[in-house]
Amino acid sequence: MTRKQCWMLVLAFEVLVFGVSQSVFRPARQAGITIEMSVTPNHVVT
């Protein structure tokens, strides 16, 4: 393995560890869709 390949492997491992640590310490919030109800009578939200 060349030196460049070794550094790329180390960098990929570091990115993997950083991503896992971020997901453990700062979990993603629940994503959702907010719909504001219309005040118009018989109005259907599509």
What does it look like?
- By secondary structure, the protein is mainly alpha-helical.
- The chain has 1 helix and no strands.
- It has one helix at residues 3-25.
- The longest helix is centred in the first third of the chain and has 23 residues, at 3-25.
- It is rod-shaped and about 70 Å long.
- The model has no long low-confidence stretch (mean pLDDT 84).
Q: Which descriptors apply to this entry?
A:
46 residues, mainly alpha
Query: How far apart, in Å, are the first and last alpha carbons?
Result: 57 Å
Low-pLDDT windows of residues: none
Based on CA inertia axes, which overall geometry fits? Answer: rod-shaped
Q: Given the structure, what is the number of helices? A: 1
> What's the main sheet like?
none
How many strand segments? 0
Helix content range: 40-55%
Q: For the residues shown, what is the average pLDDT? A: 84
Structural class: mainly alpha
Order of helices and strands: H
Indicate the radius of gyration in whole angstroms. 23 Å
Range of strand content: under 5%
Break the fold down into its secondary structure elements and pairings.
Layout: H1 3-25
Short overview:
This protein has 46 residues and is mainly alpha-helical. The protein has 1 helix and no strands.
